[in-house]
Design brief:
alpha/beta; FAD/NAD(P)-binding domain; 350 residues; 3 domains; 7-stranded mixed sheet; globular; TATA-Binding Protein
């Protein structure tokens, strides 16, 4: 049986490796950094829980054990400083996870699962892309459309998740303040004009400090970048691309973890079952990515102009009526050509 080589020991690469190892393949993973999860430093991120199967159950079906810290979110506060609303759901809308190279993070616990499966991970080592079967190297830094900057710190506040909107807080993006079990994460995400992130974060920090009478002590800086692609690369020659390396990231909110793990699983299954990975990946992701393009277009053209007040009104309403903006419905299909043209002009780098 052929030995499989994977470039990148992030969550997409490790998911592929785990599934291949469980199917009896010998797997070598090459990682340029000294450990898994080095891009992150304790950031708290939302693992999106779209309609249908619960994301944690989906992970189990993809041979991923839930041995990382994971907190369901059923209540979300939305605000632009003037108007505030709430989303309350019976089903978890997100699961909060930590990212980084330490115990309890989704990155590190996937590493543990990979090592338990007998996978060889070669840290501080890289190989040319044309020598591997699966490329999982993370974001394409030539296609960066978003950046996040924030801090993590300890607090005695009660658990909460607050999303704040306003171009002074997060230009064309959103700010968030998360507290879980005394651990807090505060970030500002900026889309397009990336050089505004420092200013936006300082405004975000001031906003949340006043709103919740915060006394931030010993903060640790966190953050990252978002790489979006309008033309996703699933195959190049015989190489499969997964996660952010394939351009799989939501253009509205920057979500990518579920895409990453799913694509890693599909790449592994395509090897195991001798399937066409490109065809399967396109069928799985194409419509939801197109819906995201339309949603980004509406977010900027419709909601930005009223300081996101309409967005803050509509999102809880959509949630109560179980409306999904991710299905690429008839209306989105009609808007899509205009949205695609707008995004191409606005974000030429992607």
């Amino acid at each position: 049986m052929k030995k499989i080589k994977i470039l990148g020991a992030g969550i997409s690469g490790l998911t592929a490796a785990i599934n291949l190892a469980k199917a009896g393949y010998k797997v070598d993973v090459y990682e340029k950094n000294k450990d898994t999860g080095m891009r992150f430093h304790g950031d708290m991120q939302g693992l999106e829980n779209r309609k249908g199967i619960d994301v944690l159950e989906e992970f189990k079906q993809m041979n991923i054990k839930i041995n990382f810290e994971c907190y369901p979110v059923n209540n979300i506060i939305l605000t632009n400083g003037v108007k505030t609303s709430e989303i309350n759901t019976e089903r978890a809308r997100y699961y909060l996870v930590k990212r980084g190279s330490f115990d309890g993070t989704v990155d590190y616990d996937l590493k543990k699962q990979a090592l338990e499966a007998g996978i060889e991970i070669h840290y501080n080592k890289t190989v040319p892309e044309n020598e591997v079967d699966i490329v999982a190297i993370g974001p394409n830094f030539k296609q960066i459309t978003g950046v996040a900057k924030g801090i993590v710190f300890n607090t005695d506040l009660e658990d909460m998740l607050v999303l704040a909107y306003g171009d002074d807080l997060a230009f064309k993006g959103y700010s968030y303040f998360i507290v879980r079990n005394g651990y807090a994460c505060m970030c500002s995400t900026v889309i397009g004009e990336l050089d505004r992130v420092n200013e936006c974060f300082e405004n975000t920090k001031e906003f949340f400090e006043k709103k919740y009478d915060l006394n931030v002590t010993s903060p640790k800086i966190v953050g990252g970048v978002g790489s979006i692609a309008l033309n996703n690369t699933y195959m190049n020659g015989n190489r499969m691309y997964v996660g952010e390396a394939a351009g799989l990231q939501d253009i509205v909110a920057g979500f990518g973890m579920r895409f990453a793990i799913k694509s890693g699983y599909l790449a592994a299954q395509s090897i195991i079952n001798d399937e066409d990975y490109k065809a399967v990946a396109e069928k799985t992701f194409e419509n939801i990515l197109k819906a995201g393009i339309v949603n980004r277009y509406l977010y900027e053209k419709l909601f930005l102009k009223n300081s996101y007040s309409l967005f803050i009104d509509l999102l809880p309403l959509c949630s109560r009526h179980n409306f999904s903006a991710e299905k690429f419905n008839i209306l989105q299909r009609m808007i899509y050509p205009f949205a695609l043209s707008y995004i191409k002009k606005k974000y030429s780098e992607i």
